Amino acid sequence: MLLLHSPAVRVALSVAIATGLYGLSFGALSVAAGLTLLQTMALSLLLFSGGSQFAFIGVIAGGGSGLSAMSAAALLGIRNGVYGMQVNVLLRPSRWRKLPAAHLTIDESVATATGQTDPDEQRRGFWAAGIGVFVLWNLFTLVGALAGNAMGDPARWGLDGAAVAAFLGLLWPRIRSREPAAIAVVCAVVTLIAVPLVPPGVPILLAAVVAGVLGLSGLGPATEGLEPDVEPYPSGPGRGDRTAGSDATRRGDA
User: What is the rounded distance in angstroms from the CA atom of residue 100 to the CA atom of residue 115?
Assistant: First the structure.
């Protein structure tokens, strides 16, 4: 079977292009926050988690320490570890594939894989989306970083607040019910109170602790917040047609 005839691969390519283009924003915002081109590229190559990367540069741009930035990024990356356990069970990668599979376990690869019902398509979807996003995200991070350097003073373009706006853009689609909205409001209030009282970078950590405590208190479904950010298939008649004949097939990801 030609790869381009695979439904999972076609979905993966479209997701990879859309996500990769967003790397332009990260690259520009990262150099605007004071990171060098090499540091920016290291974040995309080694950390490779959009939400965590934006959290990192958001703290740095606000004057926070490297430790605070790393802590904020790590807290947001916890969900990738949860994805990894599921992917390991369903994909069962061989020993040499476990490390690259772990690095490519992100929202987009998991969402593309879980949108499939056939095990082979799940595998194709996972690897195609993971590799596609990795290549394009890093390519456009480089382009954005180079363009950001050419733009000069970040204050002239308002990029000093753009990292926060970009991160809110990632967060907003996840607030889909009353419980997450309530937690978000409480965390926002905690952050506003803490900003004038503690060093830069610490307010986001305090807000994360509050969110964790509220989450563990049992508000909402047990899996709330652990679902991928990306839904590769829109809801509607097309989705129903795609899944109508697959009730007998177990749903999972690659």
Answer: 21
Q: What pLDDT digit, counting tens, does each position of 230-251 carry?
A: 666 655 444 444 443 334 333 3
What's the pTM value of the predicted model, to 2 decimals? 0.69
Backbone angles phi, psi at 218, to 5 degrees: 105, 10
Q: Quick one: three-class SS letters along the chain?
A: CCHHHCHHHHHHHHHHHHHHHCHHHHHHHHHHCCCCHHHHHHHHHHHCCHHHHHHHHHHHHCCCCHHHHHHHHHHHCHHHHHHHHHHHHHHCCCHHHHHHHHHCCCHHHHHHHHCCCCHHHHHHHHHHHHHHHHHHHHHHHHHHHHHHHHHCCHHHHCCCCHHHHHHHHHHHHHCCCHHHHHHHHHHHHHHHHHCCCCCCCHHHHHHHHHHHHHHHCCCCCCCCCCCCCCCCCCCCHHHHHHHCCCCCCCCCCC
